[in-house]
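Input chain follows. Return structure tokens only.
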Amino acid sequence: MRFSEELMAACQKGQIGEPQFIRLSYYTNKEELFDDMLEQVIHLLLVVKKAELQILSMKINQMARLLIGKFRDDSLLNCSIAQIDQAASPLLKVEIVGTQGMIQYDTSADNAFSGDYQLCLLQETLTVEEKKRIQALMKRFQLSENRVEE
């Protein structure tokens, strides 16, 4: 089962209700392309939250990307993707706040919910349809590593 499916199953099992806020942080020391990481993060968001993105913007600096956005149902998202020298292994933190509870996952914590997903987030193989949908969203919201900030 893919990480996003495991996370969704955990959300449903935990009876947190409809996700209203999603925070995701991914830090790695690998030389990965930000656009590839961004595609995987957007895919995860779309699997967890079954709503259309209304607003999605990205703040860029040399080593990080910050995504902030809002879905049509007024739920919010905040995602940070960074390449940092200090990370010995990839660090993934996910928080999903629902109408009836919250689920949290942190690869650096001993009390993260069961499973070893440290490398799974960016190793999922997207279907052609998923990749096209995500690339269309990236184009719509002008999200790309090559975009120039003013």
